[in-house]
Amino acid sequence: MPHFLITTLTATASFIHYNKGTLILLGSLLQHKHNASLFLFNTFTSYGNNRKGDTFTVSYLINSCGVSPALAMKLSNRVHLKNPDIPNAVLDLLNNYGLSKTHVAKLVEKNPSVLIANAEKTLLPKLKFFHSIGVFDSDMPRILLGNPLILARSLEKCIIPRYEILRGIVLHNEKVVSILRKAPLSFTYCHIRNNVVPNIEILRQCGVPQASISILMVHFSRVVYMKHSKFVEAIKAVEEIGFNPLKITFVLAVQVLLTLSKAKRELRFQLYEGWGWDREMTLQAFRKFPNFMKLSEEMFTKKMSFLVKDMGLLSKDIAEYPPVLGYSLEKRIIPRFLVIKILVSKGLLEKNLHFSSFICLPEECFLKKFVENFPEDMPLLADVYKGLIDNVNGFSSIISKDDVGPMVTTALVCSVITNGDLMSASYDQCGEVYSEYAKPFYLDDDIFSGRVTDKWHNFMKGEMQRA
Prior knowledge:
Blueprint lengths: L2 H10 L7 H12 L1 H31 L5 H7 L9 H12 L4 H10 L8 H14 L7 H7 L8 H16 L2 H10 L1 H6 L2 H14 L4 H10 L1 H4 L3 H14 L6 H12 L2 H12 L5 H10 L8 H14 L4 H6 L8 H17 L10 H4 L3 H9 L9 H16 L7 H14 L9 H12 L12 H16 L1
Helix pairs in contact: 2-3, 3-4, 5-7, 10-13, 12-15, 13-16, 15-16, 21-24, 24-25, 25-26, 26-27
């Protein structure tokens, strides 16, 4: 065999994807040059055929599946398509069950082998089963993209047995579907028999009612999928704190403790101490509303700053009614507190009105009781309230932190009156707004004497000039 062919063969080895056995064979053939010609012919014939197949795979992935050329080249190393018949059947089936071309591209990227599955025998029975338990086509993309290998699992040995276990826990198909939608990956990858079953069993032994178990399983299923030893540890801690297993707060506390590490919980205690909460006050708040502890340091500080510094609440009052911390700062806390403050300043509400009487009301009830109930006294209140909700984020970004209460209120009200165009408001018009709406937010009567008024006027002038 000519020496230059041996050299070429050796150089080409770096471009051909050999396995370990092939390289050993190559070395052997190079030692026996009279056999190398046959090896060279077979190798390049095979390599040429593979590249031809890869070309079709790449083309199909791009044109039929919607993936990018670069990604198609990578995926062609993981799946090889011989003809369009099998993948076409798969794509048609997926399309019939709610997957768009965009969904298909994402699914193929995560699991290209789905294209060579038997659509009729392997995929269809599983998709039909999901339909039978109440999975809608609109849910299918979320489930399949969240767990791209779920269609590769056995229907009889994996999917159905796990479904039956979950249904035995939550009792209703729609709740199983909700679990599947929220944590599709855990459905097939977590140890249901080793973790979920004993975790639920210990809750029942503690006397936790079925309703609480269902809520925990449906809304916080990832917690229930955790190791049994950790789950037991969290339950013991919750019992020591003094939670009643008959109340929903018991399971909510369990999920909080399993979500936050001990180190993070200690940092939370230090944060609360900065607001005057001792350990017992924090535990008291935790017993009433466990989820407040999941607030980030930034969000907790923002909410407390507004409630304590701007609205004048006592920090201990918030510890006694921590659910207030669970509401959106921009969409509920700020708009509602500002509206109530305006009504109190006008003598339309009692000064000692506790915030729990309005913060937890459904939106419709709050509007009826505190906004629409004063059409003659406060004709613009409904528009002001809507403006607060729509604009509080934008205006809070241009106002200093110390002025968040009165300054945001005034700017927002001006915005409402002028249909969102702050600069179209006259100076006098803004002054009237200040007197009518912003003034109540200065808690010290001495401040009304002029210093704050000048400060506000300067702010408004500056905003108008800056525009």
